[in-house]
Structure formats: structure tokens, C-alpha cells
Amino acid sequence: RMGEAESEPWLVHTLAISAARPAKHLSLSPPFQCCAFASWTKENIHKKECCFFEKGVREDVCKCGYSKTDHVDEAIKPEDFTDESWDRHRHVREVPTDAFGDISFGGLGQKTGKPVCLYPRFCVCLSTPAQNSLTGGAKNFYLKARLKNMFHRGLIKVAQTTGAWIISGGMHTGVMKHVGQAVRDHALSSAMQGQIVAIGVATWGTIHNREALVHSEVR
């Protein structure tokens, strides 16, 4: 889907979970646990970055979709790609992620217990053998109140009765918006009774103020 004048960045942080590694639970003390987590994260979760800036339709935007300021210095004045045209197969490389750590979310006032670090592969193994998929676009649409309530109740009922995890694209648009509202309303009304697991995984390019998440060391 890559076009030279593509308006939205296509470089995203991607999970690169090695299937060869066994599922593990970290039982180390907190300082060593964080170091082990940081090391594992850098080895297994990567991001893609452009290593050759070539202006597209706009002077300050590269053909990869990112602005000039989002490129490293070596990409702006590359010595290895002189007189070349931008190519996503040659000029995009994988490097260890630099966006990871702890984030504190506020708003619901729920109590939190002592955090436990789990490898992502272990989390996947905890999921049910068969996954149910609810697919929809990111385009906003209107739902009448009755249909909206039916959708919310049905989604929560399925999650509670089957123990299924709700995993969405993490956006406040389209179907994902209604999924998020259903989970939020359930969390506010049910307190600690009948909890469900909901995870939103948003692509890197869609996150507002994502620069605040970038840090070379875990924190």
C-alpha cells in the first residue's frame, strides 16, 4: 500500500516475538526484573525507521511519510545512498524499540496491585485456544440508542461467559469507539465484579504526543 506521496506514516512499531523462546514468568527482584524486561524488550520488539530522507510532494516530508525532523542525522545526509531513489525495501531498517516503560493511567480511581512483568508470549499463551474476531473499519458511524445498548450488552456478555479477551486497535473511532465505550461503561457500573480483559493496541503513527513515550532506558 506504499505510495510515494502517501500522507500518513506507515512506519510502525512492530512486535517481533520469537516463537523459539519458551514462555517465562519473571520472578526476579524489581531492579533486576526491570533490567531483564528492558533487555528482553530490546531484543524482541523492534521499530522500523527510514535511513534515507528524500523529499516527496512536500519539502519537509520524506517519501516514507515522516517529516524531516523525525529522521536521524545520518538519514538526512546519507553517504551510502548517493544518487539513489527512495525504496522501502532498501531504505527502511529494523532497530530495537526505544519506546517502553511504565505508564500510569488515571481517571477511574481503581486500586492497583503489585505489578508483575510477563513476557508477551506468555500473555498470548494465556488466551483461549480459539479467538472470536469482530472486524470493522475506523470510520465513524451512528448507532441508534437501542442498537448501541444491545451491542454493548452482547459484547460484555460474551466476554464474561467465555472468558474471552477483547483486543482492539485502541482508537476512539468506528467500531473501536463503541467497543471502548462498552468496556468503560461496564467498568464504571460493575466495580470489581465480573471483570473483563480489554487491550487496545494502537499503531505508532496514530498516537498523539508519542514522542513522550520515547526513552532509551526503561523507566
Give the uncertain stretches in residue-range form.
1-28
Helix percent band: 25-40%
Number of helices, counting only DSSP H or I runs of 4 residues or more: 5
From the alpha carbons, calculate the radius of gyration and give it in angstroms.
Answer: 21 Å
Order of helices and strands: EHEHEHHEHE
Report mean pLDDT, rounded to a whole number: 72
N- to C-terminal separation? Answer: 36 Å
The number of distinct structural domains comes to 2
Q: How is the largest sheet built, in terms of strand order?
A: 1-2-3
Q: What are its keywords?
A:
two-stranded parallel ribbon, elongated, disordered N terminus, 3-stranded antiparallel sheet, 5 helices, 5 strands, ligand-gated calcium channel activity, alpha+beta, 219 residues, 2 domains
Structure description:
Helices cover 28% and strands 9% of the residues. The protein is of the alpha+beta class and 219 residues long. The protein has 2 domains: 13-101, no CATH class; 127-206, no CATH class. The strands form 2 sheets. Strands 1-2-3 form a 3-stranded antiparallel β-sheet. Strand 4, helix 5 and strand 5 (198-200) form a beta-alpha-beta unit. Helix 4 packs across helix 5. It is elongated. The relative contact order is 0.16.
